[in-house]
Amino acid sequence: MTNFKFAGVDTVYLANKYKTPLYVMSENMILDRINEIKTNFLEKYENTEVFYASKAFLTKEMARIIKSEKLGIDVVSGGELYTVMQVDFPPEKIIFHGNNKTEEELEKAIKYGVGRIIVDNLYELSLLNNITQRYNKKINVLFRVTPGVDSNTHKYIQTGQIDSKFGIPLSQGIIFEAIENALKSTYIGLLGFHFHIGSQIFDKENYIKAIKNVVNLMAEAKNRFGFITKELNIGGGYGIKYIDKEERKPISYYTDAFMEEIEESCNDYGLERPKVIIEPGRWIVGEAGITLYTIGAIKEIPGVRIYASVDGGMTDNPRPSLYQAEYKGIIANKADKEPSETVTIAGKCCESGDILIWNLKVPPIESGDILAVLSTGAYNYSMASNYNKIPKPAVVMIKDGVDRLIVKRESYEDMIKNEL
Ligand SMILES: Cc1ncc(COP(=O)(O)O)c(C=O)c1O
Ligand SMILES: N[C@@H](CCCC[NH3+])C(=O)O
Q1: Which residues line ligand 2 at a C-beta cut-off of 6 Å?
Q2: Catalytic site residues (predicted)?
Q3: Cis, bond preceding 318 (omega within 30 deg of 0)
Q4: Which of 31, 150, 390, 396, by CA, is between 20 and 30 Å from 403?
Q5: Nearest in space to 407 (alpha carbons), one of 85, 88, 24
Q6: ipTM score for this prediction
Q7: From CA 169, how far away is CA 148, in angstroms rounded?
Q8: With a threshold of 0.95, does the pTM exceed it?
Q9: Domain containing 325: what range?
Q10: According to DSSP H, which parts of 316-370 are helical?
């Protein structure tokens, strides 16, 4: 019998050793993606920088990997900032995002000396003005703008449209008020602009439209205020393969087109090309992770469907219930057997919507089989919850065929330790 191997390691062995449900990550695959970015973007184009969007997958070990690869990191909350601080992440290589950063979070970021804060709105700008004055510390900022473009992805992960909770719309002049305020302040160092149009995007066209709109803003900011944009941050969002009909595109598919458009648009307006920054998250870690489960109850409703339930579900992977996300699964201990039946993989939560895969073709399935769900490296561990008081799974990292535990399985005690 042939078991399914991931990153060169037998997944049934991993399931037995660490128990299930279990997140398994491949460090080699993460490093492959990072190397592709280095070769085809960072080394190919001068004056560029990459910040890993840590919301996709963040643990202390992941922060260490990003640190040792000398990439920057994007954090979006006090908690993500705290996590990267635990591994002494160089502050100048941190970008702090968020549409409602609290005063406490901003203070923490300024005290630590983060390299850039991406300012989302005028309220945040006023908070920053006060805090920087109080600490007598200057902070570099970029304004997040909504460039007014759609993106071909699920509605809940689109962020570039005008009607968005993120960023300052380009259409109503608020952005010029923001620029004027920032330029007046002694403590705010305005570097440029940021946009992020959404996530799991496979086509470059909407990015290009967004770039055109934001370079137009750069030209307008120069005309009105003499402001020279030093940095243009175009976010992340590059798609990965979850199911057979999808294909992850090489990073150069996006970045070559971005660089060409930025050069051209800047030329048209007589602007110098600013530093170009990207913030990929999912593209780096998504396919580098799988989740292992044990099949428990199998329920056949004759003529309707077969439900095969696993020992995890929406608590470790909320994406199917949030975005109708689709996943591919493999019965790991029967990897060499031909599929002969179709089952529905259900989670163990008290929710009818807790279905991981609606139609999965499997060989004859039995309780005790190990299911591997693929491409769970992004937004699974990071969005996991304790609904139904289900503990979060452990995380194992594999490098060069050797497995190591990087996050312990949560215990029942862990879950109630703050309860009085
Ligand atoms: C500002 C910002 N940058 C980068 C990302 C990373 O997105 P992705 O994981 O799709 O690359 C996100 C999340 O969508 C984001 O909100
Ligand atoms: N959580 C989303 C991505 C959101 C990215 C943050 N703007 C997902 O799982 O697809």
Answers
A1: 55, 157, 159, 199-200, 319, 323, 379, 383
A2: 350
A3: no
A4: 390
A5: 24
A6: 0.98
A7: 7
A8: yes
A9: 5-22+287-416
A10: 319-323
Rounded distance from Cα 196 to ligand 1 centre (Å): 7
d(CA 406, CA 91): 23
Domain ends where: 256, 284, 312?
284
- 369 and 244, same structural domain? no
How far, in Å, are 202, 203, 253 from residue 238 at the CA level?
6, 9, 10
Q: Tokens 């660089």: give the residue.
A: 259
Of 234, 252, 284, the domain-final residue: 284
CB atoms inside a 10 Å sphere around CB 266: 19
Residue 80, annotated as binding a ligand: no
In a structure prediction context, what are the per-residue pLDDT tens digits for the chain, which is 420 residues long?
Answer: 799 999 999 999 999 999 999 999 999 999 999 999 999 999 999 999 999 999 999 999 999 999 999 999 999 999 999 999 999 999 999 999 999 999 999 999 999 999 999 999 999 999 999 999 999 999 999 999 999 887 778 888 887 787 889 999 987 789 999 999 999 999 999 999 999 999 999 999 999 999 999 999 999 999 999 999 999 999 999 999 999 999 999 999 999 999 999 999 999 999 999 999 999 999 999 999 999 999 999 999 999 999 999 999 999 999 999 999 999 999 999 999 999 999 999 999 999 999 999 999 999 999 999 999 999 999 999 999 999 999 999 999 999 999 999 999 999 999 999 999
Task: Calculate how far, in angstroms, residue 329's C-alpha sits from the geometric centre of ligand 1.
Answer: 25
224 is in an annotated binding site: no
Expressed in angstroms and rounded, the spacing between residue 238 Cα and the centre of ligand 2 is 11
Give the C-alpha separation, 48 to 94, whole Å: 15
342 SS3 class = strand
